[in-house]
Design goal:
It catalyses: shikimate + ATP = 3-phosphoshikimate + ADP + H(+); 7-phospho-2-dehydro-3-deoxy-D-arabino-heptonate = 3-dehydroquinate + phosphate. Its cofactor is Mg(2+); NAD(+); Co(2+); Zn(2+). With 382 residues, this protein is of the alpha/beta class. Helix content is 48%, strand content 19%. The protein is built from 14 helices and eleven strands. Helix 3 links the parallel strand 3 and strand 4. It binds nicotinamide-adenine-dinucleotide and magnesium ion.
Length: 382
């Protein structure tokens, strides 16, 4: 795979996806071999050739050297801060360590923070950029499929607290996103599948044709053939960028960013129950959650059974987790329901869910009976 991607990098033209927001606009650049060209790509969009690269130890070993070389070649003054890999780094403690390191090294108001890594590094470094000196320029170089199609677009940054995930944070838009698909060559297959869940989610929410494209090309995306991989990243990013552009601050309670939570209410409950310990990746939980959201929509009479069957077939044929039993863990309906009701206000035993009227037709439903959700969980063997 690496050889194929390297060969492709030579003649692959990066795709540029403009994200136009009210007060800021930037490009998401998608392609192979972008890290080697990062210096040239970033020089025109950054206010100053001073940057601090924040990355995790795993990514530092793999992808920091070519980035440093490229930035150095373009005359950048670069410092680096390395954090441990894993969700634990999205903490107040690590936030403190990173800001201390940056302030100690000397930071100017126009110094850019570059996040090199997955969503964890992106969220942490983004929040560091949003808050240090009340806001520093920020660049994302996402190195996981999930961060390329999801977390690097949209401007949400933040850290976790013991009260829950992402409870402290800020909206802080990047000056540029470089989604270098070459970096995915070193990513474990399991992480690729996790990112793929968020890709098909885009089709399931609002683009039936994109889901049909995934049915045709999903297997080659998962085996990392460069062309379909770049196309999938581009289409999923474009979808998210369009949603985010219309609802930058998640103010719309109907359509808008809320729809991006399709599959996430079930998914979060599974994740929360296992305690984010690596047994179930976020994308794996979302993959199952997507099927459960369709199942619930069918049981409530909103969605044809055929669309649920189509989704189940696609998940199963690509080796994606589809059923709660695919986790290999046992869950009780009651505890899962408690996770779902905890972060949501229940009104008269009714819950708010993102449901579907079919593939590509997601909507917000405010009166889902708790009993219907319980019935779905019991049907799944909980
Ligand atoms: P991650 O950042 O932990 O990366 C997964 C693992 O892969 C890590 O161990 C990392 O070291 C390793 N890795 C990263 N790139 C690699 C590469 N190219 N080769 C080999 N290994 C590599 O996890 P993630 O799935 O990218 O992100 C998850 C985080 O993203 C969560 O904290 C979630 O809350 C957040 N998120 C944020 C948003 C948002 O809008 N801001 C959206 C979705 C998810
Ligand atoms: Mg998600």
């Amino acid at each position: 795979t690496t050889r194929v991607i390297e060969a492709l990098a030579l003649n692959h033209r990066p795709r540029r996806l403009p994200v136009a927001l009210d007060r800021a606009s930037y490009d998401v650049v998608i392609g192979a071999g972008l890290i080697e060209r990062a210096g040239a790509l970033l020089a025109p969009v950054l206010p100053q050739k001073r940057v601090v690269v924040v990355t995790d130890a795993t990514v530092a070993e793999l992808w920091l050297p070519p980035l440093l070389e490229s930035l150095g070649d373009s005359g950048f003054h670069v410092r680096t801060v390395v954090v441990p890999p894993g969700e634990k780094s999205k903490s107040l403690e690590e936030f403190g360590r990173v800001t201390d390191a940056i302030l100690e090294q000397g930071v100017e108001r126009r110094t850019t923070i570059i996040a090199l890594g997955g969503g964890i590094v992106g969220d942490l470094a983004g929040f560091v950029a949003a808050s240090t000196l009340r806001g520093l320029p920020f660049v994302q170089i996402p190195t996981t499929l999930l961060s390329q199609v999801d977390s690097s677009v949209g401007g949400k940054t933040g850290i976790n607290t013991r009260w829950g995930k992402n409870l402290i944070g800020a909206f802080h838009q990047p000056a540029a996103v470089l989604a270098d698909i070459s970096t995915l060559a070193t990513l474990p297959a399991r992480e690729i599948r996790a990112g793929y869940a968020e890709i098909i989610k885009a089709g399931l929410i609002g683009d039936e044709r994109f889901f049909a494209w995934c049915e045709m090309h999903g297997a080659t995306v998962l085996s990392q053939e460069p062309e379909p991989l770049a196309e999938a990243v581009e289409r999923a990013c474009a979808f998210k960028a369009a949603v985010v552009t219309k609802d930058e601050f998640e103010r719309s309670s109907e359509g808008g960013r809320a729809l991006l939570n399709l599959g996430h209410t079930f998914g979060h409950a599974l994740e929360a129950e296992l305690g984010y310990d690596g047994r179930l990746l976020h994308g794996e939980a979302v993959s199952i959650g997507l099927r459960l959201a369709f199942l619930l929509s069918v049981r409530l009479g909103y969605c044809p059974q055929a669309d649920l069957d189509r989704l189940t077939r696609h998940l199963e044929s690509t080796g994606m987790p589809a059923w709660i039993s695919d986790t290999g863990e046992a869950f009780a309906a009651d505890t899962l329901l408690r996770h779902m009701t905890r972060d949501k206000k229940m009104h008269d035993g009714k819950l708010t869910f993102i449901l579907v009227r079919g593939i590509g037709r997601a909507f917000t439903c405010r009166d889902v009976p708790e009993a219907a959700v319980r019935a779905v969980l019991i049907e799944e063997g909980c």
